[in-house]
Amino acid sequence: MDFLTNVTSIFQKHGIEFLKATVLTIELTIVSLFIACVIGLVFAFFKVSNIKILESIANGYIFVVRGMPLIVQLMFLYYGISSIFTLSDFAAGSIALGIHSGAYIAEIFRGSIQSIDKGQMEAGRSLGMTYFKTMRRIILPQSFKRAIPALANQFIIGLKDSSLVAYIAVSELFNHALSTQAYNYMPLETYFVVGIYYLILVLLFTLLFNKLESRLDVGRRKKRDKVEIAF
């Protein structure tokens, strides 16, 4: 009973602060994942290219990111970036998280690009399109659709990973939970509350990606229907 009373008290006293921290968490996640998608797409191109030096660079980057704990990478990148550029904690944290997630997204894009039949690239080139134009207009749209389930999973992981920037003084959701429990001496109840906020965010991200995936499926069904009608 005391547990529920304490949880209710935390919601009442710190609800507004938690909502503000949640907004910052969403912003941090969106910015870092945008950076990760750009990095991931670049390194995915490196991986599928026939240029050995580019493949080696991509393999090295992915190996290092996968082989080191995220908190170590975050600290290294944060202090490394801050020593070169004068950036806010939010910006430096976003870049560090983006570099980390970019390695995983690179593999997602690489797999989805390679899953497209090679004949489609050959068909595009035979029509006089350049390699990059064929990629942009034929290969990438299809590979993006195939990558959505894996991207959704990685985006949710990125959302949860954003909690680690609390240790570099970014006032996001988990950082606020650390401050709150130090003030109210109720760590169990405070972490329970912040867990609810994260569950709600994950639910919203899941619903958003499910909606996007279903819309793309509808689009594909409509295209198939048109082809069948045409015949």
From TrEMBL:
<dbReference type="GO" id="GO:0043190">
    <property type="term" value="C:ATP-binding cassette (ABC) transporter complex"/>
</dbReference>
<keyword id="KW-0472">Membrane</keyword>
<dbReference type="InterPro" id="IPR010065">
    <property type="entry name" value="AA_ABC_transptr_permease_3TM"/>
</dbReference>
<keyword id="KW-1003">Cell membrane</keyword>
<dbReference type="InterPro" id="IPR000515">
    <property type="entry name" value="MetI-like"/>
</dbReference>
<dbReference type="GO" id="GO:0022857">
    <property type="term" value="F:transmembrane transporter activity"/>
</dbReference>
<dbReference type="InterPro" id="IPR043429">
    <property type="entry name" value="ArtM/GltK/GlnP/TcyL/YhdX-like"/>
</dbReference>
<comment type="similarity">
    <text>Belongs to the binding-protein-dependent transport system permease family.</text>
</comment>
<feature type="transmembrane region" description="Helical">
    <location>
        <begin position="190"/>
        <end position="212"/>
    </location>
</feature>
<feature type="transmembrane region" description="Helical">
    <location>
        <begin position="58"/>
        <end position="78"/>
    </location>
</feature>
<feature type="domain" description="ABC transmembrane type-1">
    <location>
        <begin position="22"/>
        <end position="209"/>
    </location>
</feature>
<dbReference type="GO" id="GO:0006865">
    <property type="term" value="P:amino acid transport"/>
</dbReference>
<keyword id="KW-0029">Amino-acid transport</keyword>
<dbReference type="InterPro" id="IPR035906">
    <property type="entry name" value="MetI-like_sf"/>
</dbReference>
<protein>
    <submittedName>
        <fullName>Amino acid ABC transporter permease</fullName>
    </submittedName>
</protein>
<feature type="transmembrane region" description="Helical">
    <location>
        <begin position="23"/>
        <end position="46"/>
    </location>
</feature>
<keyword id="KW-0813">Transport</keyword>
<keyword id="KW-1133">Transmembrane helix</keyword>
<keyword id="KW-0812">Transmembrane</keyword>
<dbReference type="Pfam" id="PF00528">
    <property type="entry name" value="BPD_transp_1"/>
</dbReference>
